[in-house]
UniProtKB/TrEMBL annotation:
Protein name: Carboxypeptidase regulatory-like domain-containing protein
SUPFAM superfamilies: Carboxypeptidase regulatory domain-like (SSF49464), Cna protein B-type domain (SSF49478)
Keywords: Carboxypeptidase, Hydrolase, Protease
Taxonomy, superkingdom: Bacteria
Keyword Nucleotide-binding applies: no
Presence of keyword Hydrolase: yes
Gene Ontology molecular-function annotations: carboxypeptidase activity
Length: 216
């Protein structure tokens, strides 16, 4: 009967790096009113504020949230003008309430892109502004299912000679109800290397057999 060498490892959630851009203030950024939105929608809001008609005075404002309605802080919101071949206009970060604001915009058609590490980037286009509008554009970001995935790689060698071992069967196991369950298996290449990819966080056990693939 073949023997197995066993290794236990734990894969934890990866740490996310915070963006370096300066965020908006933690207080509400609306010029004169608060708007609450927990789903993706477009809002048109009338506000009372002094307007200098000689200056651009359109606004785009909104909330960036998760699907459960939780505000997303420090999401990068980028604004582009579709009138000028997707010319970049400005960018900002959401505050603690998930709010963002672009002000003093010319009339025209714009697009917004929202991104943050750990989430799937969301885009919206054909945002039309004219005649001193204050337009709400709230977006919902979905968690990226790939963000916490990890990989395990290694090399199998002879413990006496140190020789790299090719075609050795390597199994990856998880424990379910105190029972070891084979999740994936592979064989080493000509350099003795093996790898398992796309692994969610958890505790795993690796077993390397003492016989080669052709002996199985």
């Amino acid at each position: 009967m073949p023997s197995f060498d066993e290794y236990v490892l734990e894969i934890n959630n990866l740490k996310q790096k915070a963006p370096k851009q300066e965020a908006l203030p933690d207080k509400a950024v609306s010029p004169s009113t608060m708007v609450e939105a927990t789903s993706e929608e477009t809002l048109k809001i009338d506000i009372k504020t002094p307007i200098n008609k000689s200056e651009p005075s359109n606004f785009i404002y909104g909330f960036i949230t998760e699907e459960n309605g939780k505000a997303i802080e420090d999401a990068l919101v980028e604004l582009k003008s579709l009138k000028d071949d997707s010319k970049f206009i400005a960018s900002t970060l959401t505050n603690l309430q998930g709010e963002y604001l672009f002000s003093s915009l010319d009339s025209g058609i714009y697009s917004i892109s929202v991104s943050k590490e750990g989430y799937i980037t969301k885009n919206t286009s054909n945002i039309a502004l004219q005649n001193h509008q204050y337009l709400g554009q709230s977006l919902v970001l979905s968690v990226d299912p790939m963000v916490n995935m990890s990989s395990v790689q290694g090399i199998i060698t002879d413990d006496i000679t140190g020789k790299l071992l090719e075609d050795i069967i390597v199994g990856l196991y998880s424990r379910v109800n105190d029972i070891e369950v084979l999740i994936k298996s592979t064989v080493t290449n000509n350099e003795g290397r093996y790898a398992f990819y796309m692994l969610p966080p958890g505790e795993y056990k690796i077993k390397a057999s003492s016989f080669r693939k052709e002996d199985a």
